[in-house]
Amino acid sequence: MMNAMRTALGIFCWLMLEACAPPQLFQPHIMQDVDTQFDFNVWREAPSTSKGRKVQLGGRIVEAEPTDTGVLIIAEQLPIVEHPAYGPTDQRRRRGVFEFAFLYPGKIESSALEAGNRFIVIGMIQGAKTMMVGGARKSEPYLVARCVHIWKTQDREISDFPTIGADYYPLEENTYCAASLEPETR
Amino acid sequence: MVRHGFITVIAGMIAATCVGTFVGSSHAGELRQDRRGRSTPTLVAQVAGSPTPTSTEQSSKGAATSVESTTLEELLLQKGTITMDDWIRIKSEQEYRQAEREKGIEILKEWKSKVENLPILSDKVNIGMNALQWQYYHQNAHVGEGQSQDNIFIRRSELLFWGKINEYLPRWHALYEFQSTNIATNSSGRQSTTYFRESYIDFRPFPSWAPNLNFIRFGIFRMPFGIFTNTSGGLRDIISSPYLTSVGSGSASGNGTAGTIDFLHERDFFMDVRGKIANRLEYVAGMMNGNNFHANAAQPLSANGPKQFYSQVRLFATDVSWVSFNVIAGESNNANTFINGRGKGAFDRWGIDARYMSKLFPGFMIQGELWQGHDGANSVTVGTLVNGACQGPVPPCTGSGAPGVQRRTWYVLAKYLISDGIFENWEPTLMYEQLDPSTATSNDLYTRTIVGLTYYFENLPPKIHCKFQINYEFRHHQGTGPGTVVPNTDAFAQNAILVQWQIRYM
What we know:
The structure holds two protein chains of two kinds. Chain A starts with a helix and ends in a 9-residue tail after the last strand. By secondary structure, chain A is mainly beta. Chain A is 13% helix and 39% strand. Chain A has a single domain, classed as CATH 2.40.50.140. Chain A has helices at residues 2-20, 40-45, and strands spanning 54-67, 70-77, 80-81, 87-88, 99-104, 118-133, 136-151, 163-164, 167-168, 173-177. Chain B contains five helices and 18 strands. The longest helix of chain B is centred in the first third of the chain and has 33 residues, at 84-116. Chain B is 18% helix and 36% strand. Chain B is α+β, with helices and mostly antiparallel strands. Chain B starts with a helix and ends with a strand. Chain B is elongated and about 120 Å long. Chain B has two domains: 2-116, no CATH class; 119-505, Porin (Beta Barrel), CATH 2.40.160. Classes of the chains: A mainly beta, B alpha+beta.
């Protein structure tokens, strides 16, 4: 009887901990040595200073373009929150420029690359790179992604789902890990 | 005005300081130098917000400017090509243009902040077209003289309004549906009936508890049961509503198999709590009125019917594939409701639903639902107001006298979206469904097979869903019990073809 109660208590505690912990989007070894509290503004000011660092960034897709080496994504950095739903959020108004770019060296289906979709990227900082953004030539802080998790939010908040319009519509999300950099692709 | 006044005061102070400086320090100075000294205050006046420099600082700055940043007009002035008056005029024009530019930028900034705060841009108010559907419908069932087997109409024109006030009120929602088929006549001519459909408020008591305890929802909305009842016409894969929401027509019978059966009604008065645990388990638990959302139409009678508990637990295998368990249990009332085919007494529904969206075979989806449940006794023809409960069709009671029957229904739907080649954006769909009005009665089954083809003009669900659909329905209705047959006017026993063109944009 006591054993059963202990087991039940253990399961309950495990469920509570599991419920409270943020979801693990990436494998633990992907997250090794990754700076999850990376200061984006400092990097934006001086893109070359953090070269070689492994970082985690959240954001929203502004533009995505397939290239010979993968998919080049122009994005707006957004803060990652745990409540009301884990992921990047645009709920607080901010002043400044938060644009950056990253290359995912692999393939991603087109519906995941729609403007407005939210993502969290794990990658290595490469400094700045000049590229065409909205028809204009710009120098953007740039990183190469190892893995990226994309929510197909279409510019809505992650927490808006699954109630969208007059419907129940579960939010589709996928993790992509570059085959050339990471053998495990989920 | 205040800003201009401030600039004038500072400019005046600087001018006075500079004039004093030059008068005191260069008695024998050149006239040109003196004039330049007088012009300096005008330049400094551009930076109205900066602190006023001391006379020493000012004179040294003026000197530095002349040496390090000689402009074209200054060079021309030094060479004697232009006069000091020309120089002053040029400078004045430059300063005027600069001031105008700054003023323009200030106005733009002011407007930007105003525009940013507009409710429509801050997610507080949104407007969308949930579904605008043009439909052609042909039924093989015979119809009365003067009516047509072919119909053309606007099936849905649903305007949706929603928004987020703050973290505690994450959503308000109002849906209005209009249909050309519900245009009613009155003494003043034709009048389009506006249809209230949904209105609710979400309340999140503790934002830091979300998504585990996400919010409490109050109002009238789609039932969180199964898949079809929780999916609006704008996202459905077939044109018709499934039999589980409504089937049959005519008057109720003594064995509970005839008449309209609203096995799962779509909307009601609710209050429920919702959340998601460990990103894998969604839950809903609440209470509903059970009289359907039309119940207020029975005014002055109250819509406050006997309550029913409901719950759904949905377990996700992936982000978009799941299996869920549903229950509704409580008391049914056949008085003053619009779903009184359920009779009076104990009422329950038990259901399981599942959806599989393939990641290995993108574009393929299969889903199904299985429901079973008891109705109360003495069901009444749906939509007929009755005078309370009674056992048997004894006047003035309009009840059917049917016992509380157990009903059962299920369906399976599969579709495949072709994403490349010449058939790109085409989606074949197949659905089979069955509804047994009474599991204790034979020869009463409703069955239907739907073969469909959809073409997507734009397909970015849930935001955009613009499509053209053709459905052919093979319908069969056995009867209303042993030895019965159905007439050729029974629309549920005759095949039909439906063509629909839809626009959805939110």
